[in-house]
Specification:
219 residues; Double Stranded RNA Binding Domain
Length: 219
């Protein structure tokens, strides 16, 4: 719970609260748990994230979102010098007043943020790897006759909204990298393991003395 506001997040194919409580939590893998950002086999998700270039996002809210994305990928605001991937994001922000008073002024403002994103391998040739849509809701109170406090609450809500959307986008990208890593490892293992020869089937009769040519053992 944030002071002076609250937040709700959602995703089309990933529930942030159901599967992941944040980027530092654990992802299920194999017979136990493994870190969502840790190294596994030959792939390192952190190295992959550091090679993603975040394209310019328009408007002030887009700039906040881009900064939050680069921070979660462990990059500077300028991005990697030699990127292997590019992340394109179209951000939208909608505000609506709630708690309307008799004079028509709201006592609370609710923000609804949307981030449509596309991750592509730069190539050549250019290849789309993953796409998605993330949504989040933030709100802040409007104190009566406290304009400075209202502006501060608004800016804080916008920053929280950008940070939450960035967290959802990066988490989805990490999950996609993990899925591709697991698929590549499975294909490599299947290619190196020879097919097992079928084992002969031996049927043991319940009563050997009934088979022709066999003499029952003396007791």
């Amino acid at each position: 719970m944030f002071r002076g506001g609250w937040s709700i997040t959602s995703s089309e194919s990933l529930s942030r609260r159901g599967l992941f409580g944040g980027l530092g939590l654990l992802a299920l893998g194999g017979c136990g748990f493994r870190p969502l950002y840790g190294s596994s086999g030959t792939a390192d998700v952190r190295a992959e994230l550091s090679q993603i270039r975040v394209a310019i996002i328009q408007e002030r809210f887009g700039q906040l979102l881009r900064r939050a994305l680069t921070q979660r990928m462990g990059q500077s605001i300028g991005g990697p010098s030699q990127a292997l991937y590019e992340l394109q994001v179209a951000a939208a922000q909608q505000a609506e007043g709630v708690g309307i008073q008799r004079d028509g002024t709201p006592t609370r403002v609710r923000y609804i943020g949307t981030a449509n994103w596309l991750l592509a391998r730069i190539g050549p040739p250019r290849e789309t790897l993953a796409t998605g849509t993330e949504r989040a809701i933030e709100a802040y109170n409007i104190p009566p006759n406290q304009f400075f406090a209202a502006d501060s609450s608004r800016e804080a809500a916008e920053h929280r909204l950008a940070e939450t959307l960035a967290e959802l986008v990066v988490t989805r990208i990490v999950v996609d990298f993990r899925r591709r890593e697991a698929g590549a490892a499975g294909l490599a293992q299947g290619a190196t393991m020879p097919a097992a020869a079928p084992s002969p089937v031996v049927v043991q009769p319940a009563r050997p003395e009934l088979l022709p040519g066999l003499t029952p053992a003396l007791r």
